[in-house]
Specification:
mainly alpha, 84% helix, 0% strand
């Protein structure tokens, strides 16, 4: 065993398997990093979209208040139309 000419092939020590496992793990880590980046970007896009929707709803409320509550006028008009059609049909 201590002889300098004592050579142990790499296939007996498992060096080839270590290289294969290491390569596979590196490839898996690279795939994970790509998927993680995409997921983080999608999460950021989702948060931005939610913020945009919230901002649009607030702006809609502000505009409807500025113009006298257009949504309430529409609801009243629909109710009046419904009432007129019922009385007309009667």
């Amino acid at each position: 065993m201590l002889d300098a000419n004592n050579f142990i092939p790499s296939w007996e020590t498992g060096d080839g398997e270590k290289v294969e496992v290491s390569t596979a793990l590196i490839n898996l880590r690279e795939e994970y990093d790509l998927i993680h980046k995409k997921a983080m970007k999608m999460d950021m896009d989702l948060l931005q979209t939610k913020a945009d929707i919230k901002k649009a709803k607030e702006e809609e409320k502000r505009v409807s208040k500025d113009f006298g509550g257009a949504t309430e006028d529409i609801e009243k008009s629909i109710a009046e139309l419904d009432h007129l059609s019922k009385t007309h049909d009667f």
